[in-house]
Amino acid sequence: MAQRFRAMEFYGTGDPYFGGNAEDRVLGKSGAFLRGFYQRADIAEFPTREEALAAGERATNRRNGGKVGILSSPFCVDEALKAFADAAGR
pLDDT tens digits, residue range 40-73? Predict the structure, then answer.
């Protein structure tokens, strides 16, 4: 499987459940970071790290103080959940 990359905006500190204000968002195909519920098909993917980072930095709804980073898509949500379950012996 070819590796693909996704842009993320990391914002705030601490889990909101525990009183923090973190709200991290993935970049959508629209060129804006996604909020709330969305489909996997809405997420923008790029062939290189550089393209993903550049697209994230150009996002139309970046927040002051937000940091843009990238994730490799073969190791995204489904794979991360499986890795955590495997590590826990489930």
Answer: 889 999 999 999 999 999 999 999 999 999 998 7
Burial of 19-38, coded b for 16+ CB within 10 Å and e otherwise, reads: eeeeeebbbbeeeebbeeee
Residue 24 and residue 67 in contact, taking contact as beta carbons nearer than 8 Å? no
Helix/strand number for the chain, H first, E second:
2, 3
Where helices occur in the chain by DSSP H, the ranges are 49-57, 77-87
For 5, phi then psi, to 5°, come to -130, 150
Q: Find how far residue 9's CA is from the centre of its chain.
A: 7
CB 55 within 8 A of CB 44: yes
